[in-house]
Specification:
Shape: elongated
Structural class: mainly alpha
Order of helices and strands: HHHHH
Oligomer: single chain
Length: 93
Amino acid sequence: MEEQELNELQPDIQDQNPIAPQMSVGEWLITLLILAIPLVNFIMMFVWAFDPTSGRRNFARAYLILTGAAIALSVLFIIFMFVLGISIGILGS
């Protein structure tokens, strides 16, 4: 009897972690159309990434991680090319 009372006191696991419904093809088409609009796509990615009930949550998080990595690599490449250009200019003169 004690085990049953203990189970009644603990909230159901499904109540704590709501599962997002599966997205239809139409919803994915709308998602792709939104992603084709400059600046709006970046804003919507943040909205979807932090919405716990969004079916696009994991997709948006992965997109933001890849975008951040691409920006970081681009900045590093630009810095490298700038330093290389300066060093060639110093050595060439």
